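ugh ok fine here u go
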Amino acid sequence: MSKIKANRYENTATTDGGIDIDTSGSVGIGTASPVLSIGSVSGKVLHVAGAGTTGARFQNTSGTSIEFFAGSDAIINTGTSTNMAFKINDTERLRIDSSGRVGIGTSPGRTLDVSGSIRSGGSTNPYLALNDNTTEAYFEIASSVTRISSGTSQPLAFRIGSTEAARLDTSGRLLVGTTTEGNGAADDLTLATTGNTGITIRSGASSQGAIYFSDGTSGTAEYDGFITYQQGSTPTTDYMSFGTDANERMRIDSSGKLLLGTSSSIETHGYTQSSRASGNNTTLAETGSLANNEVVRFLAKCSSPSRTLQVSVAKHSGITNPVAYLELNQEDGNQSFFWFDNSGIARTSITFTHTGTTSGTVIGTQTSDERLKNVGANVAYGLAEVKQLQPKQYALKTEPDTNKLGFIAQEVESIIPEVVFNTNEPLPNHEEGDRTKLGMEYVQLIPVLVNAIKELSAEVDTLKTKVAALEV
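structure:
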């Protein structure tokens, strides 16, 4: 193998076409002063210079080559359809394949493939732009905001795999699971799936989750209307509330009680409660009109066994206009209706179509049909018992200024016990062993009075006979 070793070789035939090797070992082709012009860096250099496009080419025997050109542009070219790789310490760090795809830390499968992180820096809004020659999208960091934007009027879509999961359309509406917005009055957020669909608001164990309805950016205008859920461990600390005009109007506590106008239960067994500090308070159930056999009602019900109490307004074919009535089950399950007829007389019946009519039994009278009775012996009480009764003038202790006429139950009980009944209601200051309150069924005295009158009538008849005999 031959060598050329010289401190300086110079072709003096031309000033720009020779080879110059200076004393430092730098080589100049087309220049007598080879230099490394990268800031203050210095060292040995191969410097190729020319008046037009100037280049250098390295090629192996199989034709693979790399070329360096300096003209109007600085160019690095492989010369053949091969990949270009860049290595550091014999480890590949970057590759440009024959299709022009760039891989950093990896072989490229797309126009740019990066294994690792990408960082874009700068003091004035650094950004990443994607452009298909028609539209453009940006990822930008500004002084006080990070932006993802489309350069043209296009929606932003978010995909998982090949399936679109969400979309921000050109009107700023967020569509999740769909590309079709909801009704125009509520289309800013649309969620859609093919099954159950919902939103979860998860807060701390003693914190609040909320949805606020606002028409302002400060004060109570930020929560004119609201729905909140307060997490807690008791009915008073664990509840959902609903508000209007920035005030709570309704609450459902964790025991299931519905509280209207109050934030705390005022009745232990009341599961629907309505309260106001003062003023009117009406609970309304209304319908525009009623056809036959239609009803509007308030209903209290026990399911097992089935027992109901209903305050109703209904219509049936036997009346011209709807009628208000009370419907209830007796302890044995039989049903009764109570209403007032057009004369203001209170009536009762077991038949719905009697309501609003003059059918049924007048309240205050008693059913006396023999077919409803097990008839026993004749009443034995009469004049002797009536003579023992002592009518009293009295005033109730709760109404000391109101005089009344009547009997004392304890006195009557010893004479005609059937007239007196035990209400099983304790009196004020009731103590164990005391009798509960007594009542009297005054109508039960009527048969006794009838017997007494009959006895007096018989005595009068006897006297009349005796007087007539004396007059003869």
